Amino acid sequence: MEEVKLLGAWPSPFCYRIIWALKLKGIDYEYVEEDLFNKSDLLLHYNPIHKKIPVLVHNGKPISESTVILEYIEETWPHNPLISNDDPYEKAKARFWTKFIDEKEPIFFAFFQSVGEEQEKATKEAKKVLKVIEDYGVGESRKFLGGEKVGMADLALGWISGWLEGMEEALGVKLLEPQSFPMLMAWIKNFRDVPQIRDNFPDRDQLLIYFKGLRESLTLYIRKFQFSFMVENHLQSLLLFLNIIDEMWPQNPLLLPDDPNERAIARFWMKYVDDQREQFLRFWKTTGEEQEKATRDVRNVLRVLEENGLGDKKFFGVTT
């Protein structure tokens, strides 16, 4: 009997791609919910490189990265195909749109994460992407990106059928307006009407709570970052993010120590290392006499780190 296990996390649209694919194929599987703030030994064992979900485990063999998993599912269980078996052109189109959607997702993350002028710019960029999918992907004669049946590209785009709405409501900014994107709105309805999609969809209210909480946290941190940027230089603002990480996830406080003196030492060495990066870049970029000089400068930096930074300690900035 085949063992199929999916390691995922409920807010992740990338996990739902896999859930939908398995359901469409009629594959029985065990679902393991992961706590992304306290990753399990199972996840670290099966995905030691990226340490991310989703991970599909098939007979003890792990496969990671959602689009890679979708391809694996299609090749392992070819019934109820997600990509046309017969037409190479249709296969190529499905892979093109899947790749296009994946490549453009950071634009929507920027839309959700930014404020002010940056958000206005990200909103325009996101609408341009949606317009491309509206005009060239869905089109008037196609029910889905894959034709008359849900395909791989539809699963990749599936996140706009629920997650995008949660992002819009949390921000109070509308991207998908029916008058501007009538075919995409029709696609969303068609997609949500598929039983394997409809019956395996995250709760709308829970998604909204999730995105509102995430946005509130991001807004707070963006304000802190902007204040820090005005007061300090760009490199020092990185320290703020480390503080944020320590405040948000206080377990195992490894980034900045509790002791004020040790915190100051940690900040000093972080800034020193950042300030000296240009020396290493010059060493790499230059030739001849300039490289010889850069080599000496780099060695001086390393000597300072060796003698004054580490000394007899195991790590920088700490006494333990």
UniProtKB/TrEMBL annotation:
InterPro entries, per the entry: DUF7962 (IPR058268), Glutathione-S-Trfase_C-like (IPR010987), Glutathione-S-Trfase_C_sf (IPR036282), Glutathione_S-Trfase (IPR040079), Glutathione_S-Trfase_N (IPR004045), GST_C_Tau (IPR045074), Omega/Tau-like (IPR045073), Thioredoxin-like_sf (IPR036249)
Keywords per UniProt: Transferase
Lineage summary: Eukaryota, Viridiplantae, Streptophyta, Embryophyta, Tracheophyta
Matching PROSITE patterns: GST_CTER, GST_NTER
Naturally occurring in which organism (per UniProt): Cannabis sativa
Entry's Gene Ontology molecular function annotations: glutathione transferase activity
Family matches, as Gene3D superfamilies: 1.20.1050.10, Glutaredoxin
Any one GO CC term of the record: cytoplasm
The keyword Cell membrane is annotated on this UniProt entry: no
Catalytic activity, reaction form: RX + glutathione = an S-substituted glutathione + a halide anion + H(+)
Record EC number: 2.5.1.18
PANTHER family assigned: GLUTATHIONE S-TRANSFERASE, GST, SUPERFAMILY, GST DOMAIN CONTAINING, GLUTATHIONE TRANSFERASE
Gene Ontology terms describing biological process: glutathione metabolic process
Any Pfam family: DUF7962
UniProt keyword Transferase, yes or no: yes
Domain GST C-terminal residues, every copy: 87-211
Occurrences of domain GST N-terminal (ranges): 2-81
Residues forming coiled coils: none
Leading EC class: transferase
Protein name (Swiss-Prot/TrEMBL): glutathione transferase
Superkingdom field: Eukaryota
CDD domains (UniProt xref): GST_C_Tau, GST_N_Tau
